[in-house]
Structure formats: structure tokens, C-alpha cells
Specification:
By secondary structure, the chain is α/β, with parallel strands linked by helices. The chain contains 20 helices and 16 strands. Strand 6, helix 4 and strand 7 form a beta-alpha-beta unit.
Length: about 450
């Protein structure tokens, strides 16, 4: 039942109005002045306020502004004994749903109430949807407890509060778009659009049209004007995934937009403006690509204002357990199965695996395992063959005199020498840190 608050100092008129409103199935709350009316708003979930303009302790027109400040989803209909155009204009400016004259407009009250409630309910639904989106893409939903992830999250939280361009780097499947969404949702642009475009999906011509839009007749098949992603992102965030795949000539056009906020749709001659924040992502080394003239160096430096490198899953072993638990619950619910337990050796197999596909691969494997199992516990037998037997194969190929055995022993010695400092170990071995982590996993060195 919808709650209607009636504020009027004339008790008889208030009672009459309450009976009219109650007879239509609404729940009525009454108040005789603005002070008590505000208290009623604080303790009740009110949908619409019917408020007299002239009250003993103030003006309903001024009170309307206070209601909208403190309870923005509540709709207000002002009632007056004498209709004044100036009051009506000010009331609408302050956010009134409508302004009507007592007695003359009594037959309008119920239809107006229904429309006001409809508007209030719509705003509440939008707010709930926005909250669900915000919750879904908050930093708290990024699962993991490793130091590597914690460091990346701290960087992302800091840059989210700014309007700086962000470059997300990392292997495919590490969750770059998840980070981009979280940065957007925690920025000052959160109420505006987050628009995502994968630069590797389209040919050059289609990508240009998708990015900048086009005018009708710009090319064969351009039957009407089309907004580009840059225009759609105005006021919000544009996420360009796999930006390293963008053709060189389009890179020049994107650079101009970033420096001037101006762009020209395909087939048009009139510049347009768009104020957006750019978050770009790539699994390529753009510095090397720019040095090899495969990516514009000026665009690289413009993108690289704030780089966040998301580590691969094999460098975040501690995150595998919480991620596995999360995906098991998700797919247990999805397949209508009782939530499954995770056998220790099932988890051990996952932690020993190299994860070339990162979090995305882990998610897919957990979904497959949940579907395959007939037990209440996930056992290693439902894992893919290469995960089940990875260590067996490694052990068979390693003899005491094999290069693998010698390499494993050498890595262990250097680790002991550096007292477990992996960055220093990688430096002394003259290999990359990612290569070191891969070999630690491969040889099951902890």
C-alpha cells in the first residue's frame, strides 16, 4: 500500500482530503504543520506529499525544496486556496510534481496522485538498478587475497577518484574489464554511461564507424545517422579493450580526440565535442610496439599516464582458493545443485596449474567440473586431463640428470640465496618475473 502524507493546518479540509484519498486504497498520514510533517517523513516511507502552500510555520513552496533535498524520491503536490502564478512557477522550479487549487481541482487529486506515485516508483526502480550495478562492479567484488592483487586494487582505487586516463595491461583473461568497470563505478562519472568497445573485433572501416559514428550516406549501407561510442560516452567513461589492435591511422584520430575533445563522424565535416574519460586495455607491450613502429609513440605516451599491470593468475596463487569457492557457489546455484564442497586435492591441482587463460579459464573449468560431478564434493577426476596429470608428466620426464632437474635445483639454490626474494631471484637468473613464477609452478617449488 502506498503512503500519502497530507500536510494542512485546516483539520476539516485535511480530514475530507484524507477520506477521498483513503477511499482509493491509499494509506494516509496526516500532519498539521511543516515541522510535524518533516518528522513524519523521517519515520515513514512516504511516496507522495500533498502539502498546503500557507501553513502556520512556513511556506509549502519553500518546504518543497527541503523535501527534495532530503527525500529526492518523494513527489510533492502543492495545494493552495488562491492560485498565484508566481507561486506556481516557483513550486515547479523547486521540483513540485504539480500545483493545484483547493476545491476547484479536487477531481484532479486522485489522477495526479496515481501519476505521482508512478513517477516515484520508477525513480525507486532506477535507484535500485543503479545500486545493483554499483554493487556488482565495486572493488569489493574483485575476489582475491594475494599481495599482488592488493597492490593493484590500491592503485585502481587511487586513480578512480581522478579523471586521468588509465592503461590496463595484462594477459588475456586477467579481468581488465572488471577493473575498468570498478574504476568507473567509483569515479565522479559513475552516474553516466560506461561504454566498452573491443578494438580487435572489427575491421578498420567498421571500427572507425563504431568509434566516431557516421552520417547517412557516408558509405554503402549507411542508411541513417549513427552515434559513435565516443558520443555515447559523453560525460562518462569509454573503455577501449585491446587498443593495441587499433590501426595506426585510427590511432592518430583517437589522439586528436583525447587532446581536443573534438571528433568528426565518418562522412561529416562538422566537428562534435565529447567529454569522456578513457580507460584502455591491452595484452601487448605497447612500449615495445611503439619502438617497433607498430603503435604510435605519441598515443602510447598519452595513454600511459597511469598504467596498472594486472598480474596473471599464476602469480596470484592465494587467489585461486577464494575464486574457486566463488565460482563453485555461482555454478551450483546456476545448475540447481546443492552447494558443493571442494576436495583438498582438487584445489591442489588447480594451484599447481599454469593457467594460460587466467581467471577466465578457471571460471570455465569450475563450470565444467560442477556440471560433471555426481558427488557432493568436487574431486580431481572431474578436472580436464592436462590439469589432473600435469605433475605426473613432469615427474616422468625429470631424471636426476635431466636439464629440468638441474634447472629446478638451480632455481631453488638462488631462491635460498635471496631468502625467497623472487624479484631478486629473477634478476640473478636473468629471466622475467613472470617466467620465474611459471617455473616455480612448473617445478612445484613453494
Amino acid at each position: 500500500m502506498k503512503n500519502i502524507l497530507i500536510i494542512d493546518d485546516e483539520e476539516k479540509l485535511r480530514g475530507l482530503l484524507a477520506r477521498i484519498v483513503t477511499s482509493e486504497g491509499f494509506n494516509v498520514i496526516e500532519a498539521g504543520d511543516l515541522k510535524s510533517g518533516f518528522k513524519k517523513l523521517e519515520i515513514n516511507e512516504v511516496d507522495v506529499v500533498l502539502c498546503d502552500v500557507k501553513l502556520p510555520d512556513g511556506s509549502g513552496v519553500d518546504f518543497l525544496e527541503k523535501i527534495k533535498t532530503n527525500f529526492p524520491l518523494v513527489e510533492v503536490i502543492l495545494l493552495t486556496a488562491y492560485g498565484k502564478i508566481s507561486d506556481g512557477v516557483q513550486a515547479m522550479k523547486n521540483g513540485a510534481f504539480d500545483y493545484i487549487v483547493k476545491g476547484d481541482d479536487n477531481d484532479k487529486i486522485i489522477p495526479l496522485l496515481c501519476k505521482a506515485i508512478e513517477k516515484s516508483q520508477l525513480h525507486k526502480k532506477v535507484q535500485q538498478l543503479e545500486k545493483r550495478i554499483s554493487d556488482k562492479y565495486s572493488f569489493d567484488t574483485i575476489i582475491g587475497k594475494s599481495k599482488a592483487l592488493e597492490q593493484v586494487l590500491n592503485l585502481a582505487k587511487k586513480v578512480a577518484k581522478t579523471d586521468s586516463t588509465v592503461l590496463l595491461t595484462g594477459e588475456t583473461g586477467t579481468g581488465k574489464e572488471v577493473f575498468a568497470q570498478a574504476i568507473h563505478q567509483n569515479s565522479t562519472r559513475a552516474e553516466k554511461s560506461f561504454v566498452a568497445l573491443n578494438c580487435s573485433t572489427f575491421s578498420k572501416e567498421i571500427l572507425e564507424s563504431e568509434l566516431f559514428g557516421h552520417k547517412q550516406g557516408a558509405f554503402t549501407g549507411a542508411l541513417k545517422d549513427k552515434k559513435g561510442f565516443i558520443e555515447e560516452a559523453n560525460g562518462g567513461t569509454l573503455f577501449l579493450d585491446e587498443i593495441g589492435e587499433m590501426p595506426i591511422d585510427l590511432q592518430a584520430k583517437l589522439l586528436r580526440v583525447l587532446e581536443t575533445n573534438e571528433y568528426i563522424p565518418v562522412g561529416d565535416s562538422t566537428p562534435k565535442k565529447s567529454n569522456f574519460r578513457l580507460i584502455a586495455a591491452t595484452n601487448r607491450d605497447l612500449k615495445t610496439e611503439s619502438e617497433n613502429h607498430n603503435f604510435r609513440s605519441d598515443l602510447y605516451f598519452r595513454l600511459n599516464i597511469f598504467e596498472i599491470s594486472i598480474p596473471p593468475l599464476r602469480e596470484r596463487i592465494k587467489d585461486i582458493s577464494p575464486l574457486t569457492s566463488y565460482f563453485v557457489k555461482q555454478f551450483s546455484d546456476k545448475t540447481n545443485k546443492k552447494e558443493l564442497q571442494i576436495a583438498p586435492d582438487f584445489l591442489q591441482k588447480l594451484e599447481n596449474y599454469y593457467w594460460p587463460g587466467n581467471v577466465r579459464e578457471l571460471k570455465n573449468i569450475i563450470e565444467r567440473s560442477v556440471i560433471l560431478t555426481d558427488l557432493d564434493v568436487l574431486m580431481p577426476e572431474v578436472l580436464p586431463y592436462e590439469i589432473q596429470h600435469q605433475q605426473d608428466r613432469l615427474n616422468k620426464t625429470m631424471s636426476a640428470f635431466s636439464m629440468q632437474s638441474i634447472e629446478k635445483l638451480h632455481i631453488q639454490k638462488v631462491l635460498n640465496y635471496t631468502k625467497g626474494n623472487k624479484a631478486e631471484t629473477a634478476r640473478l637468473l636473468e629471466i622475467g618475473i613472470a617466467t620465474l613464477y611459471r617455473k616455480l609452478d612448473e617445478y612445484n617449488i613453494h
